[in-house]
């Protein structure tokens, strides 16, 4: 558990970082790491290394050790060289945020970034961090590297990576070079479906034996109609024509289940908003699985009847953004 004093100190450090880096709004791609965007500071191991060098330097001065002076300056020069290498390990990288696939609440969202290394040398020991999650990777010479940063979801809506950090401690782990950016990216988080939902709602006023509806198809013969030029020759009533009758076309029909209407207002009143969204999500998945056409009615929003992956994503997206401010939706 974090103590109150530690929490206040952490918030003060975050405010200082925001003021220092001047980053808040999403940035359009590509995001290029130029010299002014890269920051360098020693790591905890680097601070301990500096303290050890200071102790060795004091001992060399006290005992007038020429070899001690040389050893201290050699190690100090190595640490300074590692600072340059850490800085150049990030310099010139280009970052582009890719499309994030929608997920259900409780699943893990994957923010995908394309890291373009334009130089003909490898960029080792890089890492991306956001929302407390971190993933390491290497960028090959003159290659485009795709990195997926997993992020757990706890609520529905639009999830953005926010302030994302790319960093490296290569080559010695003494120096940390990093850059902060806010990608223009979001992941749609659908409501979690109800684990054991009731059966799909049907039209209670319709007769049980007449729930189907007819449409043009090839299942059942329904009669003859006037021939049209676009009709297939296979459907022409040739026997009627051979007896001297007019040219007619056989008409067929298919029978299917009626369209479902998943209406927010028809749900039980004791359900709160999130439980209603969870039930509607489960019904949408069930209707799609059973190859049914369905429409969705929400307060202030209606989705016409349809079917298929695109229609399902449209309906689930409306559920995910339900109640969000207009500019966010």
Automatic annotation (TrEMBL):
KW Coiled coil (keyword) present: no
Transmembrane segments: 38-61, 67-87
UniProt-annotated stretches for the region Disordered: 193-227
Coiled coil ranges: none
Keywords for the protein's UniProt record, in alphabetical order: Membrane, Transmembrane, Transmembrane helix
Keyword Membrane: yes
Bias type Low complexity, positions: 201-211
The name this protein goes by in its record: DUF58 domain-containing protein
Organism: Thauera mechernichensis
């Amino acid at each position: 558990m974090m103590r109150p004093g530690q929490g206040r100190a952490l918030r003060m450090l975050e405010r200082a970082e925001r003021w220092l880096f001047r980053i808040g709004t999403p940035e359009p791609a590509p995001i290029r790491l130029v010299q002014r965007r890269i920051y360098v500071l020693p790591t905890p191991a680097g601070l301990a290394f500096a303290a050890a060098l200071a102790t060795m330097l004091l001992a060399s001065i006290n005992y007038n050790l020429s070899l001690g002076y040389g050893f201290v300056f050699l190690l100090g020069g190595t640490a300074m060289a590692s600072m340059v290498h850490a800085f150049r390990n990030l310099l010139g990288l280009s970052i582009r945020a890719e499309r994030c696939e929608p997920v259900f609440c409780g699943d893990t969202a994957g923010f995908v970034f394309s890291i373009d290394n334009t130089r003909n040398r490898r960029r080792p020991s890089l890492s991306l961090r956001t929302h407390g999650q971190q993933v390491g990777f290497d960028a090959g010479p003159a290659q485009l590297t795709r990195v997926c940063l997993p992020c757990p979801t706890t609520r529905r809506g639009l999830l953005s990576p926010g302030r994302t950090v790319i960093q490296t401690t290569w080559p010695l782990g003494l120096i940390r070079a990093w850059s902060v950016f806010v990608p223009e990216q979001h992941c749609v988080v659908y409501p979690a479906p109800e684990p054991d939902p009731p059966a799909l709602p049907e039209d209670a006023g319709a007769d049980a034996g007449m729930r189907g509806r007819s449409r043009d198809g090839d299942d059942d013969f329904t009669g003859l109609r006037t021939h049209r030029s676009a009709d297939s020759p296979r459907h022409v009533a040739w026997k009627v024509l051979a007896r001297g009758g007019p040219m007619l076309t056989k008409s067929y029909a298919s029978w299917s289940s009626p369209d479902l209407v998943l209406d927010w207002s028809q749900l039980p009143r004791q359900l709160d908003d999130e439980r209603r969204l969870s039930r509607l999500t489960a019904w949408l998945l069930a209707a799609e699985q059973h190859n049914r056409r369905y429409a969705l009615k929400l307060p202030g929003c209606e989705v016409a009847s349809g079917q298929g992956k695109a229609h399902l994503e449209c309906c689930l997206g409306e559920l995910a953004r339900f109640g969000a401010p207009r500019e966010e939706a």
